[in-house]
Design brief:
5 copies of one chain form a homopentamer.
Chain A (H helix, E strand, L loop, with lengths): L8 H4 L5 H27 L10 H48 L8 H21 L5 H7 L2 H8 L4 H18 L5 H26 L4 H26 L3 H23 L11 H15 L19
Helix pairs in contact in A: 2-9, 2-10, 3-4, 3-8, 3-9, 3-10, 3-11, 4-7, 4-11, 7-8, 9-10
Chain lengths: 307, 307, 307, 307, 307
């Protein structure tokens, strides 16, 4: 996720923002060359050139904008749902922390409480690593003892197993008589919500937008942009390459942002800052037990990027 | 469901993606022939030809795009709701598994637990077969004993009966004193959610978009595309067949994708991969009891398709 | 509700689908006559005719499409919410059936269970008749004994009274010691959901879209269509009647579908098939108690219509 | 709220519907006069007149339609959310009535039950009067005894205090041993929902759409309409005043409807019929206790209006 | 938040509303100068000037409007969700107040009740200050005793710690035997909802719209507006500066409103009136215990602004 640097309307026009530009640079160059070709053709070989004018472009242009807009809406909805799921995970973490330190009547520095909250943090990190296909060993080792870490790593779906361990802790507290069935059930419901977050993230990750949308939109957008110079040359002459690159930029960059947001858990510049969100959640858990060893908040790098 | 193969923007223009194309190939061919006819007519028989120009097309074109876009949004919402229902089913399966192995205090390899989790898996498969009008016998026989399978197959709505059996198991555990009413009620609520998934899928399956939308949009889209060459011939001459096929492709393929997504439980290329989702859910259930006999994950076939 | 008959893209162009067409036939005829008048006028009395050209039509056309689309979205949302409410009613019926036969420990053929499930079915039928302003006597008499039927018919809102009877049954079972307060509360929550369905249907039925939308859109759409021939005649000449009827058809039929869906409980072809949904729910209830006397599923009539 | 009178498509064109028209009559007249001015200017003083043509209007027209449509969607969503909140209030009223007469085991004509249901009705009326800034004394005096009425009227937020009284009644029944904590908690949850209705209505009432939207849209729409005649005069000549009034009507009336719906609790023709909804809710409560003194349903007045 | 002053349609055209105008004044001035340049260039140096005409503007204009509209929808949704979260906080505050004074059986002026409700109010103020990066000391000192205030101020996330204190109070009441587990659980659920409000606000604050949208839209909108005069000059001549500033105003102001709403917790004119909402919530809490010392309602300042 790129953090918005403060700026004025004027400087924002020239802000260096590579995140999407680099994905459309090559096709924009092709478009520019086609614009030059159109200029050259209209003066030197006009009778060989296709008889295009802006009419079909206005016919298809609005339809294309509506369709691109649909894909963009769908992808942004995926992004925002993913963010909401991660937010809900932080909420549950805080709820569980409050639950563990008030209802059980255990002191804040009780090892059982610490282990339970570490399991919650481990769930968050394990989910992050599962969604990014990376190795959770280091994150888990920092939080849990070695044997349990090995146990978790052996499983197919690590967050699911961590939830199971956590549930066993809640049930154990109930069997120790720390609370009755009603509060147990209330605690288990929080775990069910964590599980729903896990399932929701797997759903977004595992089911991209139907591929036919991508293919159809990709083809129509690029074909539209490729023909554009030949449609504009008759009306705006020498300005064709510039204007056609501008229109192509709007369409292609819009298309490219949507592609980045489609899988919001990836590692691209506009994706969610899962690492930073995980640390935030761990900090909230640490605060709940007045811990001293707060992990430092992640700061954006020199490209204003937060991972 | 077609899985997105990794590719660049350039190769994506030529990726072979038959899923929607084959549905619009015939009308596109007709459109191309009409384009040739318009070219021929404009030179050889211009006084016989309808006096069309692009004006009415720009009048109706935007309206058409907005209406096609409505239908597309509605169909995609059905698709995504269906996916969310199946995701919710997996969540409940995991919740029930955690419930059965922590709250009842039964060992993970207890036959009652195994039977309960097999009933959950059987619910998933029975729903898949009901939604696809296929025969669930093999899937059920793999999970449950013969008599129960016969019992299930005799019913009108198999998943409903499986839920009933599952509920009887939960109530039985309560009567055995394994947990009290509060946890029983918590378990039953999970079954109610499974039932809501069943009902939601039946709703999406049983109530397509009002038919009048289909008829109206089909007629206007095809009529629009059929007249298009005669509207463009005056402005772009010989390029008419190509450009008119391009515009028709955008509209017809968009219309066709929506038609595929309308019943997301079908067997068409862009429909939900119910078989693969069922196996995923069964794997999650198996992991919960540390089972060794995990069913292998389904992999996409050579057309990148997941069923 | 019209069930979609299987067909190809080609035959679908000519499918006889009277549902919406008959509502717009008269205005389309008027539009056609205005088109002929425009053709006649442009050749015989051109100096008397209004100096129109397509410019104002493209100005207002897009705005009109956007506004028509808003009304259509709102009406479809009402339709789909109504369908979802009826789906939720079926879910609750099944939940109540499972509840009655597993938690109470009564046999499936116990008269109390039968009466409770009949009350659920009676609720569904009573709601259907209330929404369609028809007489529920026959449906109720088939399910409940005569005195209770008279009792119900005396009330202002019959479904509300049926819920009350059902709630008394659930409370009675609790007082008989069949279950405790926790399960009673769980049962009562299902009745609250049924009540929310009743309230939701009353809301949709009792509050149509603000009337000003209808009047405004009706006037602007019809005025637009009436002027259209005079705007097109200068550009497309003899093709005017045909093309203007085509454009008018798209706008008016779209407007008409939305009008049908606005009250989804009516008896028009695209409305919800309440009769069929009621029977489906009764069948689900019957299956739950292994009843033999399943009411037969309603089949679409010769016009593919399901009521 | 205006009730839709039954009519045909033809008579609907001429139906007298003053609700919105009277708000746009003055600007439409100005627009008509500007149209006449444009006609006069184009013949008598064409060299003094601004050189306008339809080009900028088509540039800004679509954008304007999209922006007007956004505001309209947002205002309609407020209207429908408000209606849903009032619907939810009726649902809770019925739920509480069923609760009071089945769970407490009190007879239907018990004074405590009557008082509780009167408190629910008083909540509804008090909310109506708060939202419309009117005096609730008469409505409350009809339902509650004098001292309590004075007590309520002294408070800042009357519905909040009524809820408190109701909650005390529910708690008292629990202390009398009529039900246990579980059913009490279930009753209190219904009051929390009533409270959420109160809060939701206050939110919609107290936070209109950001004012900047209104100012921006108002200015651009009116400026657009004022310039329109001068843009059209070159293309459609004498038809300018008529056509420009038609286009202005569509935009301004659309803008005006949205303004009416923005505060759905007002007293304008398209606002919610709070008086009628309150009576409906009271009738539902009366039916629950088989009361004879049903308040008569409010009927629309001669302008088809329901308040 | 700017409160809507009552006005007529005519005076509204000239209402001084600086909130957004001041953000677009500079670019509008630049646009006006470019318009003058275009007028000058078209008469004095027409052969040096780019050959533009309105064609590319109509191609890109609609697409731009659709994209601007997407960003606006997303930002408004953030604004409204934030408002709904604050509304939900007020609901919970009232629920907790009713809970504390009816269920615990403590008198309204009991110090424990007062402290609990002050903690709720402190939560609201602490959240406001966290969202606006301001110092909560004064607000907290007014409500809580000094030691607790210091304790709260030491924490990283103050509202989280206040919730913890509140939860300890609810648990303490349960341990004192004032209510059982069921009502405790019901109280804790309200705290979980307050926590969800905290998390939701942090989510909206911490995750702006992906930055790429801002950059892309900013560039395309400003570039579009800068080129506009040169596109219009050929069609509307001397009217160019005026009309082009009008079109630019619509696009840029729309863009600017969305930017203000994106972070609805800021201190800009159209942001949420957090100070006023906090006082409203405190007033509701004070009313619940019949307190005399109601904080006065905040009134809009001379610019109709509510903070």
């Amino acid at each position: 996720m790129i953090v918005r640097p403060k700026t004025t309307w004027f400087r924002m026009l020239f802000v260096w923002h590579g995140s999407v530009l680099h994905r459309v640079l090559a096709p924009l160059l092709v478009n520019f060359l086609l614009g030059l070709l159109a200029v050259w053709g209209s003066t030197h070989a006009s009778h060989f050139f296709p008889h295009l004018n802006p009419v079909p472009f206005s016919l298809i242009g609005v339809a294309l904008a509506i369709f691109v807009s649909f894909r963009n809406n769908a992808c942004y909805a995926r992004y925002w749902e993913a963010r909401t799921l991660w937010g809900s995970m932080k909420n549950q973490a805080r709820d569980l922390a409050r639950f563990a330190i008030t209802v059980t009547d255990l002191p804040k520095d009780d090892p059982q409480v610490a282990r339970a909250l570490n399991l919650v943090a481990a769930f968050v990190y394990a989910l992050k690593h599962q969604l990014r296909d990376s190795d959770p060993r280091d994150s888990l080792a920092r939080l849990l003892d070695g044997e349990l870490v090995e146990d978790i790593l052996r499983r197919d779906c690590r967050p699911q197993y961590i939830l199971e361990c956590l549930q066993q802790q809640l049930v154990a507290w109930c069997r120790q008589g720390r609370y009755g069935d009603i509060l147990l059930e209330s605690g288990l419901r929080k775990l069910d919500t964590l599980n729903a977050v896990l399932g929701g993230c797997e759903r977004i990750r595992g089911t991209p937008l139907p591929y036919a949308y991508d293919v159809l939109l990709h083809r129509t957008t690029y074909f539209y942009c490729a023909l554009l110079p030949f449609g504009l040359i008759g009306s705006i002459g020498l300005a064709t390459p510039l204007i056609s690159v501008f229109i192509a930029y709007a369409f292609l960059a819009w298309h490219a942002i949507a592609s980045e947001l489609e899988d919001p858990f990836g590692d691209e510049p506009n994706d969610l800052a899962l690492a930073s969100l995980s640390v935030d959640t761990e900090r909230a858990l640490r605060q709940a037990v007045d811990a001293r060893d707060m992990p430092p908040r992640l700061l954006p790098d020199l490209d204003f990027r937060l991972r």
